[in-house]
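Before our next group meeting I need something from you. Please put the record directly below this note.
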Amino acid sequence: MKALLIGNQPPLGYEYAAEDFDCVVIGSLTLGQVLGAYPEEMLAALAQGMTVVLYEPGFPKAEKNRALGASLASRRRELKSWGVQFVSGGERTLITAQEARAMKAQGRSPAPGAVLTPLAKEILDGL
């Protein structure tokens, strides 16, 4: 699966391309990108119903500032509600039947390395 890369390259096993990509991988975001304006490529991909994967270690942290940390947590929830998938390098995502139905309705495919339940495989066979 070819992906457009935003930020640093994470160890997720994607092939990266600037054109003709199937999804967007965000390897890292700055505090300004999270709390200010999100990258335009990410927003465009979400608007088109593409899969957007964010590498968890590349999401900024503010452990010594509670207010800033709360703002980051709020933005994380916002991104998840928009369909951004947070993943870690060694972590494999489990796709359940419920998630498979939602993905199929949105025309999205599972991320590489995702583990599908038998029913999820059956649901997504047409994609």
